[in-house]
Amino acid sequence: MNRTVRISLLLLLSATASLIWLRPAPAPVPPTVRITIPVSLSDNSAQRDNADGLWRVVTQRVLTQDAIRSLQNQLKAMGLTPLTLRTKEDVTLHAFDDPGHYTTYEEAEKAGNIWKGLGIQADVIKSQEGIYVAGLGRFYQSHYAEGLLIRLKETGKPFRYEQRTIPIPVWRFTFPAAEKTAAEKLWKQLSESGVIMPVLIPEIRYRELYGDISPE
User: Please, where are the H alpha helices in 63-178?
Assistant: First the structure.
């Protein structure tokens, strides 16, 4: 099922590539806060160079302050005190809109109300000067976008979709560097929590990625 949905999403993007899109305007972002990063960020050579050295546990990135506070509370309940890393990274934005371009707020609101009547959340967005659209969703994770895609297709109404890569602030948690045995124990503890998906990397690799960032 997931494979079929992903293929549908790709076909939708390909089919609409010839259309002229407005840049997706800012809209309230749903509570989608986690984005998967690779299971390991280290390469084999880094692991060999650091075989007897220190290792780090780094969590997946999160996108909102609410998510940070939630994870901090969960880690505190586990007896852990993390360090916070703030960076700016490229994230894929999936944007869904009503196909109309409206010259007044009221016209876009009317279009949005039609979508609301079909059970789809809609927000009026000022896309550019004098142009308004009814935004149907902004997502940073593909599986949320795929879920909305299914619902939109079920309505039988046309809609616009655009996928863009944009830089946004993101946060990660890390912990003091430790010997590999201790780092693996922490990694396992976080993995088994069912809440946090951690990555275990050599300290040398951590410094390459985040050495110029002061943990908070």
Answer: 65-77, 105-117, 142-155
